[in-house]
Amino acid sequence: MLLAFFDWLATTAGSIALHESLHAYRIVSTVHVVTLSLFVGTASLLDLRLLGATLRSVPVSEVARRLRPWTMAGFALMIASGALLFYANPSPRYQNLFFRVKMAMLVAAGINAWLFHRQVFPRVADWDSDPVPPRRARMAGGLALALWAAMIVSGRMIAYDWFDCSRQPQSALVNLLQGCRTESH
Amino acid sequence: MRRTMTFVGVAVVGIGILLATVPAVAHHAFAAAFDDKKPINLQGKVTKVELVNPHSWIWMDVTGKDGKVVNWGIEGGPPSNLFRNGITKGSLPVGTEIKLFGYQAKSGEPRGVGVFVEYLDGRKVFMGGSAPGANGAGAAAAGTNGAGAAAAKP
């Protein structure tokens, strides 16, 4: 169902223009890498502050407030350029194991950030100037660092076609996880 | 302790950024998927040309010594590289007889990465991908042509 939609998406003018483009695709992928560096780079500074590893004399809320515009801008551009890259090759990405892992990491990191901002950050005033924040804040920071790193690594791995649906036989688990169509052909 | 933690943090971010920067240079490395000790020298008919980012593919039917037809998929560079080297959407219509020099996939499947396409009139077009010499420049190309020629001998 979704796959049929992505197959159709690849036949739209914008997708064709992107995947057949001489320059647009590389420009978009470069923007993606640069902006994800900006996003993960600035987000990591806050995470490291939450771990008590850096900027320990600066209040946590101050670090968060000053980095936020950069983190948000990086995130917005990373998502927009990433969406374009997906749009260029929808079905191959959708059926790529590493792409799926990357999306899972993105969702997990999003939940982690959401829980942090909902449950931990509202009480930042209690520990704002502590060199080493309380355990829950440290956990959120550490988890975020790990999840973003895993996201970047799995994103990088998308380029390797070891598990491509077109390369059968693959293990049943791989086919299941990627949603490969194996019955026909 | 603090300095060590800071260093670890910087290293984590640094490695992440490094890993992330690689695709801007090359989508994936030659050595990860292809074997430089398995040069291939194919001749057959084009069945499909996918001039797409991030990698182009030329698919061709090759008749083996046993008479069996095998469909090979050969990876090339992105459309911009092929365009620069002279391959456009219309230059390899389905059914065109070509020779193709490259390196086979490590997995041993009928897949590989192309160094150059050779038309039967002798014209060569480099495939602009990750294979050594695929951009047709200088010494690398000469070396690869040597390998290709060696492989070409039956």
Tell me what you see in this structure.
- Chain A has 185 residues and is mainly alpha-helical.
- Chain A has helices at 2-9, 13-19, 24-50, 60-88, 90-94, 97-120, 135-157, 172-178.
- In chain A, α3 packs antiparallel against α4 and α3 (24-50) packs antiparallel against α7.
- Chain B has a domain at 31-126: OB fold (Dihydrolipoamide Acetyltransferase, E2P) (Beta Barrel), CATH 2.40.50.
- Chain B has helices spanning 2-25, 30-33, 79-85, 138-152; strands spanning 34-50, 56-63, 69-76, 97-105, 111-119, 124-126.
- A 5-stranded mixed beta barrel of chain B has the order 1-2-3-5-4.
- In chain B, β2 (56-63) and β3 form a beta hairpin.
- Chain A binds chain B through residues 18-23, 25-26, 29-30, 33, 36-37, 40-41, 44, 48, 51-54, 56, 88-89, 145, 148-149, 152-153, 155-156, 159-161, 167, and chain B through 2, 5-6, 8-9, 12-13, 16-17, 19-24, 27-28, 32-33, 51-54, 78-80, 83, 89, 107, 109.
List the helices and strands and how they pair.
The complex is a heterodimer of chains A (185) and B (154).
Chain A: H1 2-9, H2 13-19, H3 24-50, H4 60-88, H5 90-94, H6 97-120, H7 135-157, H8 172-178
Helix pairs in contact in A: 2-4, 3-4, 3-7, 6-7
Chain B: H1 2-25, H2 30-33, E1 34-50, E2 56-63, E3 69-76, H3 79-85, E4 97-105, E5 111-119, E6 124-126, H4 138-152
Parallel strand pairs in B: 3-5
Antiparallel strand pairs in B: 1-2, 1-4, 2-3, 4-5, 5-6
Structure described in brief:
With 185 residues, chain A is mainly α. Chain A contains eight helices and no strands.
**SSE class of chain B:** alpha+beta
Q: Work out the helix count of chain B.
A: 4
Oligomer: heterodimer
Uncertain parts of chain A: none
Q: Order of helices and strands of chain A, N to C?
A: HHHHHHHH
| Helix share, percent of chain B | 25-40%
What string gives the helices and strands of chain B in order? HHEEEHEEEH
Outline of chain B, from the CA principal axes? elongated
Low-pLDDT residue spans of chain B: 138-154
Distance between the termini of chain B: 65 Å
Question: How helix-rich are the residues of chain A, as a percent range?
Answer: over 70%
Shape of chain A: elongated
Strand content of chain A: under 5%
Strand content of chain B: 35-45%
